[in-house]
HD domain-containing protein (Breznakiella homolactica), 419 residues
Amino acid sequence: MQKDIRQVLNEGYSEAIRDVLWGHIYLTPEMQALTKSKAFMRLTRIMQLGPALYTYPGATHTRAAHSVGVYHLSRRLIQDLCAKGADAWVSAPGICSFLCAALLHDLGHFPYTHSLKELPLKSHEELTGELILAEPVKSLVARTGADPYFTAAIVDTKLPCSGETELLFYRKLLSGVLDPDKLDYLNRDARYCGVPYGAQDVDFTYSRLYPHKERGVDIDTRGITSIESILFAKYLMYRSVYWHRSVRAATAMVKKALQGGLAGGVLKKEELYGLDDQGLFEVFSGRSHPLFYLAEAVRDGQLYGTAMEVPYDEKKYPKLAGGTDFSSQEQDLADAVSKITGKKPKPGEILIDLPESISFETGLYVNDGNCTFSESSSAFTTETVEAFVKSLRIIRIFIHPRYDFSDMPVSLAEEILQR
């Protein structure tokens, strides 16, 4: 291994952070300074799983803790890959930039997990890139030996890279099938929720990874089980935690309040950037809008119940495809309930929720099998993975507690959703 690469990976890491998952995590003094910046400290006030704590009370861990964990696993990963030959095409400044990108990858993340994800806002990756390129973070990044633009471009893939091979290599490491982000959040979220599904064997996984200049990393046939484990863990965590019906209810309620505020001109997009969990709810206070009571109800843990849930089928429910605002269908449902019960629902008392489409990455190359993972001996075929994704997308109708679930006949609701 080249001397400058060895030095940047192993020397000067004198500052320790004690982590629940990974024990002592060591940073250089310059890296530690990044964790004391105002932008990073905001992450200490954003819970990683937002409303999941209403179902899993232990889920109070923060985006900051997760970010430090991703940095730690990224350092371990690049150390292993450089020992296996990646030092032939990486540079010392590039490694510093990669480690900064790992530490800061969630710097622009919105509060309350993904309640804001489907709104017409900048992506959190774009916001992260902007924060890295703004003072004081820009200067703090430079002091670590990293290049601020290079660091920002690793996270925000929309930033031009001019065919930079090393940059593309780091992008694939930070966001891929077996990336440090996923390995940390699955382990961390499972630990704090008290569920067994997410635990991953990082030591074994890293031992089966091999650097590739264009693809990022390859695996060998012994590493196939690592991908199988992470795919099934991700599926179970989405099914049991991330998209639990209570989490989806809270998400739908907050999203509806935000949509109403933006559409009515009561809220501006710019007000939703740079918030922490408390700041998000403060945005609604002191302002008048007929949907803002939804956010207050979520803050107080008064979540809607599930009146109906059916598997999403794009052919059966074409009007819901690609949509995030279901106001028209919600009004039709409210009119139907009004006819049945004689009670006229207020705006926001009946909500439709459909989670966004997600992907289960399986694109790793099996180097001693001369095939991709999906072409290997794994039982996780392309069809199996697609079935995972399809089974997770469930249409739910959430309804205010003052209504009985029987007030929403399933056959009538399905007919309205198909219009």
Summary: Residues 245-357+393-417 form one domain. The mean pLDDT is 93.
